[in-house]
């Protein structure tokens, strides 16, 4: 994982963990799949990036996996 992917993943985790509305709906926001957690919860998985830069412009796309695990 490059530094861009790690930064986007860390930012997504921080934003979700600090969201008061989400906190009222889930038991927690986890970095990866938690070993022991009861649903509902959210977890941030891996991040993948791909370069889409051109000869005269830099660019990178980063995708982060978010899982929302519910009950029922």
Explained architecture:
This protein has helices spanning 3-17, 20-23; strands at 29-31, 41-51, 60-69. It has 72 residues and is an alpha+beta fold. The protein has one domain (3-69). Strands 1-2-3 form a 3-stranded mixed β-sheet, with helices on one face. Helix content is 26%, strand content 33%. It is elongated. The chain is built from 2 helices and 3 strands, in the order ααβββ.
Mean pLDDT: 92
Per DSSP, the total helix count is 2
| Biggest sheet descriptor | 3 strands, mixed
Rg from Cα:
15 Å
The main sheet orders its strands as 1-2-3
- Structurally, how many domains make up the residues? 1
Strand content: 25-35%
Structural class: alpha+beta
Helical content stands at 25-40%
What is the chain-wise order of helices and strands? HHEEE
Q: What is the straight-line distance between the termini?
A: 34 Å
State the total count of DSSP E strands: 3
- Describe the global form: elongated
The parts where pLDDT drops under 50 for at least 5 residues are: none
Supply database-style keywords.
single chain, 72 residues, alpha+beta, 2 helices, elongated
Secondary structure layout plus pairing:
Elements: H1 3-17, H2 20-23, E1 29-31, E2 41-51, E3 60-69
Parallel strand pairs: 1-2
Antiparallel strand pairs: 2-3
Compact overview of the structure:
The chain is of the alpha+beta class. The chain has two helices and three strands; from the N terminus they run ααβββ.
């Amino acid at each position: 994982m490059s530094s861009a992917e790690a930064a986007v993943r860390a930012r997504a985790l921080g934003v979700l963990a600090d969201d008061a509305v989400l906190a009222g709906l889930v038991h927690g926001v986890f970095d990866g799949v938690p070993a022991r957690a009861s649903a509902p919860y959210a977890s941030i998985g891996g991040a993948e990036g791909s370069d889409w830069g051109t000869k005269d412009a830099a660019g990178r796309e980063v995708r982060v996996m978010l899982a929302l695990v519910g009950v029922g």
